Here is the input.
Amino acid sequence: MPLPEKKQRYTYDDYYAWDDDERWELIDGVAYAMSPAPSRTHQGMLVELAWQFQSFLKGKPCKLFFAPFDVRLNADANNDTVVQPDLVVVCDDSKLDDRGCNGPPDFVIEIISPSTAKYDRIKKLREYEKAGVREYWIVDPETKTVQVFILENGRFIASGYEEPEKAPVSVLSGCEIDLAKIFAE
Here is the structure.
């Protein structure tokens, strides 16, 4: 997909002006085309994750959003990193505006596919850590595992869970996600 104007680096203003029919992400000003529509399995997993999170969050102050939903990780700094995670939880209403989340959300999930695995495991992981996302999950449908990264002293500490375990959500005290239901298909 060609960009409207060829540049070395882009900002959120550039990104926001692009055609809505094409999905992009910006990482440190570099544009990355997003994969075509996710698979049926990916969508089914996302719906189950959203249902479990929303059931827990009902009546609580944190809010759940899922793709496409713009997250401007460093909107107050260089304004050059915009991502669309599969699922995010935001507990600070002041970060929300009509365009999405302005600053790091508290919690992010990416459901990987063979075409996005490296991008999600390396590039996005680094950006989420740098921005201060408190918890990041990488859900792998192939291995039926979840890699969990919890921010401690500015660095991610990794752990993991697999089907049929229940994975606790560190940033949402008392929340556990039933992985057997996530990977049921």
Q: What stands out?
A: Residues 6 and 31 are 10 Å apart (CA to CA).
